[in-house]
Design brief:
Layout: H1 5-16, H2 18-26, H3 55-67, E1 74-78, H4 81-94, E2 98-103, H5 110-124, E3 128-134, E4 154-159, H6 169-175, H7 180-183, E5 191-194, E6 198-202, E7 217-220, E8 223-227, H8 230-242, E9 247-249, H9 256-279, E10 289-290, E11 296-297, H10 299-306, E12 319-320, E13 323-328, E14 353-357, E15 360-362, E16 375-378, H11 403-406, E17 415-418, H12 422-430, E18 436-440, H13 448-459, E19 463-469, H14 477-492, E20 496-500, E21 531-534, E22 538-541, E23 545-549, H15 555-560, E24 564-569, H16 571-587, E25 589-595, E26 598-602, H17 620-629
Parallel strand pairs: 2-3, 3-4, 7-21, 18-19, 19-20
Antiparallel strand pairs: 1-8, 1-12, 2-5, 4-9, 5-6, 6-8, 10-11, 13-16, 13-24, 14-15, 14-17, 18-22, 20-25, 22-23, 23-24, 25-26
Helix pairs in contact: 1-6, 4-5, 14-17
Amino acid sequence: MPSSPAPAFLATTVRYGRLAVTALLAAGAFTGCAGLPKDVHRPVSTALTSSAETTLGRTVDARRAAAQGRHASGFLLLNGPQDAYSSRLALVDGAEKSLDLQYYAIHADASTERLLLSVVAAAKRGVRVRVLLDDFHSTGRDAQVMRLAFVPNIEMRMFNPLAGARGSSLGRMFSVLGDFSRVQQRMHNKLFIADNAMGVTGGRNLGDAYFGNADTGNFVDLDVLAVGPIVQDLSRSFDSYWNNERAYPVQSLITRQELNTMRESMRTSDAARRERIEGQGGALAPDNQPVGDGRRATAAQRARIWDYQPMDLAQAQFTWAPAAVLVDKPAKIPPDGASTGTLPEKAPARATPVTITSRGARTATAAGPPSASPASTTGAGMAPPNPSPGSSAGGSSPAPAPNGIANASPDSETLEAQTDTVVDGLLQLMGQARRDLLIISPYFVPGPDMKQAFAAARARGVRVRVLTNSLASNDAPIAHAGYARHRPDLLAMGVDLYEMRSELPGVLRGSLGSTGSTGGGGGTGSMGSSRAMLHSKLLIMDGRLLVVGSMNLDIRSQRQNTEIALLIRSTDLSRRATAQIETALREAAWHVQLKEGALVWRAPQGSGLSDATSEPDASIPLRLMLQLLGPLAPDHLL
């Protein structure tokens, strides 16, 4: 959930889609918006060439040697908010050469304040910092995050920026109505990379709600800390977005003086609000202070976040395994001035496989210009494989695989996926499932090809389980409308559906997919006591392939937003994550079933709740909204 009412309103508007916008345009209220700057200077830069001479690089080598890891890359799931935050603190504190951050949203609050103060300190000690942020949330208080661009040794760019007002989210919405198609397409990738040696990717943005520190609602989320050669592939993805024409330096969009003026306006507004409340005999809590020129935070929020210590990376217990990165290319979002047209029913087929064997990873990227293909795949720095018989990658044959792969034993299992988009690649992988598919998708609006993939899996005897948000736990309730209309079909084909409660047992709050010791940095429980909202994106196939990323299984992720996913071939990691998720399915989720043609929600074990015959835990107004607006909202806008 966005961290303040205004961003929440705008975020909901994006998922409500063209419904409200069409009404306003029909009324003739607005016709367009100002254009973006032209002839923008974008100096090209790339990731650190080698991490071998950095402390983080040496730490990776030491951890692998201590574990006698067979594979060069290691992974640690960061399911709890404390581990997720402490790992990022450790990366910032340990960085000596470079920090690269790529996010959909960075909110100006207590969690971000401490983290970005550490980033600024890193820049002052000589670390080159690059921050790439999608422009959707950079309004109001959150716009103050753009002040980073004016700190020496920090570069900041906004991806797919929106022209017009930044003073408030409501003003932003009105100013971009004439460019709504482009507003819908966002850079949803999340990366936090230090010295090209260690990096975090997954579902979390930066903000209190993602680290268990919000008072009203916190996300149950999942990241993975990756180390070793696979991080170089994450960095190549970052570079492709950073150097893209859709990335605009902050200085080309807003001046320091404009940010100062916005800050003073917010301070004046806050002071007037305080006077009004005190004049009415009320009082603001004395610990209610502005955070980094951002939204107000309580002393308790500050104390929680400043109490955290960086994770001890030298003690982290990594799982060493083959892996590959699946990432959408920036060209998925057209540049300014290009017509987006109508979203295709299905992307054109491309033979661009990713292959992961039990001894390593093989990858391929479509031939042609850097922006020619919607998605690319890289894997632990290994060379591309030979294409499958009768196929080609963009009309040219990839280089042969290295001997370590070509000579794999006959019992090495192979997975291949077409990489039209990240979601398309995952659907291809799902087509190879033999026994079990376990999926977590907070916003689950399956298109026709997704439903076809589920039906095909069930026809092969594959058990398919999906955990998504309930109406009560969903921070974007309108997205639930798209899921709800497909629910009967999914149940009829034999898909097991689970909907997470908004009130979780303490042992599970903020925690899905725990895999054991992290080597310090905190526990896995949520810091705040509030409503829980599912935000993890995960797929486990046959207990042997684990996928963690930024993508949802919905048409928005498939056709509009850019996404990134990390595919890890590890039976051990998959098994341990599955055990934790199955606990959540039993104890923290409603099991939706069809009984005599009607929906029934089976209560979680040990909850003391009764089974339900309508959306459980949801208020009557929320149910009415679902009934009224649900039929009007097209799937691709949810």
